[in-house]
Amino acid sequence: RYKSMVTPRRAAVAIACCWIVSFLVGLTPMFGWNNLNKMRRTQELNASHTQFVIKCQFETVISMEYMVYFNFFVWVLPPLVLMLLIYLEVFNLIRKQLNKKVSSSSNDPQKYYGKELKIAKSLALVLFLFALSWLPLHILNCITLFCPSCETPPILTYTAIFLTHGNSAMNPIVYAFKIKKFRTAFLQIWNQYFCCKTNKNTGTTTAELGN
């Protein structure tokens, strides 16, 4: 049912919705959920008449309540748990099909479901890398919010931040090495735009990727 359900229009709408939600969630601090009022109250309590200056550091400007309750507990943790449950169900169904060796549209059910299992493992690896990259920083944010007296070593904070940025570079590599069609397209793009080589089979492979 995949080809009938996932039409180009529905895919475009889903991608657009993801970007819109990402912008709204990411820009929420600019809409007022930040530490500006808190810093102003602190200055007033100290009866300071000096010029109001904001120290441009992440934890100074961004509210930890926003990062933990809204960002982590709403937009990261629930989708992560849901995706984990979905992948577990997918693996369970594929395992059952492989054990039953049920008939399918493919001439070789064992080969068909084995291929599906391989693709599922590749996508599960992407999910694992996402969790590995983002959970450390969110855990540190939880420590900062729920245990203000706890001191986090700077090296842990910098490592967690580095992992979140590195996650964006991991996915193309995983796709390229684990999924053949992505790897073929990646090599063609590399040869065409970086090595100035042309490939006569570009059109054919592009059509295959579209299918």
Please specify the SSE layout and strand pairing.
Elements: H1 2-5, H2 8-27, H3 36-45, H4 58-61, H5 64-75, H6 77-100, H7 109-146, H8 154-178, H9 180-193, H10 202-210
Report on this model:
The protein is elongated. With 211 residues, the protein is an all-alpha fold. The chain has helices at residues 2-5, 8-27, 36-45, 58-61, 64-75, 77-100, 109-146, 154-178, 180-193, 202-210. Helix content is 76%, strand content 0%. Mean pLDDT is 84; it is low at 202-211. α9 runs antiparallel to α10 (202-210). It has two domains: 1-62; 63-195, Rhopdopsin 7-helix transmembrane proteins (Up-down Bundle), CATH 1.20.1070.
Count of folded domains: 2
Radius of gyration over all CA atoms, rounded: 24 Å
* CATH homologous superfamily heading of the largest domain: Rhodopsin 7-helix transmembrane proteins
Count the DSSP helices: 10
Shape: elongated
CATH class placement of the largest domain: Mainly Alpha
Class computed from helices, strands and strand pairing = mainly alpha
**Level-2 CATH architecture of the largest domain:** Up-down Bundle
Keywords: Cell membrane, Disulfide bond, G-protein coupled receptor, Glycoprotein, Lipoprotein, Membrane, Palmitate, Receptor, Transducer, Transmembrane, Transmembrane helix
Domain G-protein coupled receptors family 1 profile: 1-175
GO cellular component, one term: synapse
Transmembrane segments: 12-33, 72-94, 123-146
